[in-house]
Amino acid sequence: MDAAFTVEQEEIRRTLRELLAKRSGPDEVKSAVRTTAGYDDGLWRQLAEQIGLPGLALPAAYGGVGCGTVELALACEETGRVLLPSPLLATTVLAAPLIAALGTDAQREALLPSVADGTLTATLAVSGGGLSAALGLTGDNTGGAWAGGGRSGGVQARRTGSGGPGGTWTLYGEAAQVLDGHSAGLLVVAAHTGGFARGRTLLFLVRAGAPGLVRVRQTALDETRTQARVQLREVEAELLGEHDAADVPGALADAGRTAAVVLAAEAVGAASYALERTVDHVKAREQFGRAIGSFQAVKHRLADLYVQVRAARSAAYYAVWDPATGGLALAQAVEALRTTTAEAVQLHGGIGFTWEHDAHLYFKRAASDELLFGPVHRLRDRAALAAGLFGGEGDAVAVAGPGAEREVTS
Questions:
Q1: Mean per-residue pLDDT for 167-175?
Q2: What is the DSSP string of 184-196?
Q3: What pTM was estimated for this model as a whole?
């Protein structure tokens, strides 16, 4: 395996870093998240026009750049450094791959070019805050319990007509914690249909502005990753794909593997920058007539952080070439980000504890990532189960099942 990046890949990294350094500093980030959309629409258009960021991993046949996971991960490492508020994760990493994998030719031709040029944003709406479960990051997603499981709750779908290849469907229910749910132009909604005995989970397309669709932006711990509560009150929807026998869990798991790699790279970028800022601070901050960075205790703490961040970067880069290890890489990266940002707050001293300090942007991103896509121990349990380390599914459930579930939900 050749782990070296190509000249073109390094150019993507360099160009993106230079642009974000000019347009997305801490002050710009704080201003962007307070807009109606939750991000700088002008910067998003610039990223689409100059770099092709929204369509970086989409095929050229649909207006994309035609790159792959490597380039997308490198780009997200750079956006993670500055905590860029953008529709990149929801649109390019979650929704677009599902449309490409399951959509009809007509759906792909109608939607993906607009996604690639940045004019259409999209997101994946999953009920009950079960995004990590739906993507197969923290458990087997074939059961469909995260989409309602045939019981009351979640989002339910029923066929109401036969117009078109997939027929006409009506959705009813609610999905909370939908990334960019208040601003996305297209919602890919996971809904349960068929009742309890013959139930299955399908994906549906819902356009912004559809009658009966109510979207409310929620207050989130991490302002740079906006979330919304989406209510569907007898909303007409289009089935994603030609028929209702599509392998939805398989497509979601594939998207989850890519998402894990990209999120790991993004977390590594954030942890790396938080560490750099902390090192700069301890070099400049003086106590007892000398820089606090010269104290041995501080050096040891920073050295430990450096090793942890470098290990997380290595894991993320390995996962780029072997997406099957994405869950482990994500666990390593989220843990590194959590530790680094907590230490950053501590080492910044009194100013680090003020809520307005930039260090808290990164600290809140670390906490939010673990809540949305983890927790870390569940990511590792899932990876261990997939690798057969427990000898069988039953053994793994004893380790990662009810006890872990209580720990997560308590």
A1: 90
A2: -SEEEEEEEESTT
A3: 0.91
